[in-house]
UniProtKB/TrEMBL annotation:
Gene Ontology molecular function: any one: oxidoreductase activity
Name of protein: FAD-dependent oxidoreductase
Superkingdom of this protein's organism: Bacteria
Entry-linked Pfam families: Amino_oxidase (PF01593), NAD_binding_8 (PF13450)
Residues annotated as domain Amine oxidase: 100-343
Gene3D superfamilies: 3.90.660.10, FAD/NAD(P)-binding domain
Length: 365
């Protein structure tokens, strides 16, 4: 039996699990995919990789600055650019951000951040949770996983439970009457709203490398206005040392992605995004050698809860965490993870928590 089961190996789940494991609790992380990081994601591709989730780290707060400095000291992240641009649809010009700020990336892929946070944790991959319920004596949580050939057991038991997954996925597990969660808590989870996004990864002939060096300005990342089908373009291969071909990652707007939420074929969406990119920026962006497309159903939390965690009034300790608790994307997920760990610790032994400043260094050993 575990002291804590954490559902979800994204930023919030990993942060919570690390904090509790550092205190000496027995912790297991249940992750439905085969990797860590959640939306801080990287796709492995032939001879390269592409960041189709989180775009960069911007150390503009104390918390993110601490994390970036530790990651930098371990050569996990490095500066990418100090200037991003906005596309002006009125005249087609690229306008540089007014404020100078270093943007950090991971040359091995942004999921390297999640791998760092997951150092030393007991993570059950391909562990999709099907249901949760208290045992008949209301002493422990019983967690049932989907049966796969990769799992030795489909049953996990724990004294406390952390749900660090997007609100709609958490709702699916919380709604059954057997969980004992009140309608008031369920209504709060239902009130959370996410925006979707279509991510397109595209690779181009190596001969196009020289064209990129002649751009004016030579941009690394480009934002688009809210009413545009495009939201973001990144020259992703500029993050990689010795990249052999240009690779770009493009993100759609939420409104555009809504039209393809249930589409079985995403190629038309990818084609439209590439055509728009070619129209606005580099003419050959709509003629890639290869394309991969990913649908993020829960890309950005549009309507988060005001509190950093959601405590469920269930028979046993259960708390929800993530960027949908408090908002603010990566930083919000980290803060929510810390707060969830603090609350779970209070339900167990109330051990003294180390200061946040030392938390990152403890992961690195």
């Amino acid at each position: 039996m575990f002291d804590v089961a954490v559902i979800g190996a994204g930023m919030a789940g990993l942060t919570c699990a690390q904090q509790l494991q550092q205190l000496g609790y027995q912790v297991v992380v249940l992750e439905k995919s085969r990797g860590v990081g959640g939306r801080v994601a990287t796709r492995r591709l032939p001879e390269t990789r592409a960041d189709h989730g989180a775009r960069f780290l911007k150390p503009n707060t104390d918390l993110l600055h601490q994390l970036v400095m530790v990651l930098s000291s371990h050569h996990i992240v490095q500066p990418w650019t100090d200037r991003l641009y906005q596309f002006n649809p009125d005249n087609g010009e690229l306008v540089a951000d007014a404020n100078w700020c270093p943007y950090y990336i991971a040359p091995e892929g942004m999921n390297a951040v999640g791998k760092f946070l997951g150092t030393g944790l007991n993570i059950c991959f391909s562990g999709r949770v099907e249901k949760i319920y208290p045992d008949r004596n209301n002493l422990i949580w019983q967690i049932t996983l989907e049966a796969t050939s990769e799992l030795e057991s489909t049953e996990v038991v724990a004294r406390t439970l952390v749900m660090a997954i997007p609100a709609p996925q958490a709702l699916t597990l919380l709604e059954p009457e057997a969980t004992g969660v009140s309608s008031a808590v369920l209504d709060k989870v239902r009130s959370v709203e996410f925006d979707p996004c279509i991510a397109v990864m595209a690779g181009y002939p190596a001969a196009r490398q020289k064209d990129l060096a002649q751009q004016n300005p030579v941009w690394r990342g480009l934002f688009f206005p809210p009413n545009d089908p495009l939201a973001w373009i990144a020259w992703d291969s500029s993050k990689r040392k010795g990249a052999k071909q240009p690779v770009f990652v493009l993100h759609s707007s939420a409104e555009f992605a809504e039209n393809y939420l249930e589409a079985t074929d995403l190629q038309p969406a990818g084609d439209r995004i590439l055509d728009r990119a070619a129209e606005c920026t580099i003419p050959w962006l709509n003629a890639p050698e290869w394309v991969q497309i990913h649908r993020w159903r829960y890309a950005f939390c549009r309507r988060p809860l005001p509190e950093e965690i959601l405590i469920a009034d269930s028979p046993l300790p259960l708390v929800c965490a993530g960027d949908w608790c408090g908002g603010n994307q990566i930083e919000g997920a980290l803060r929510s993870g810390f707060e969830a760990a603090r609350w779970i610790n209070g339900q167990l032994q109330e051990l003294p928590l180390p200061p946040l400043a030392s938390f990152w260094h403890r992961i690195a050993g």
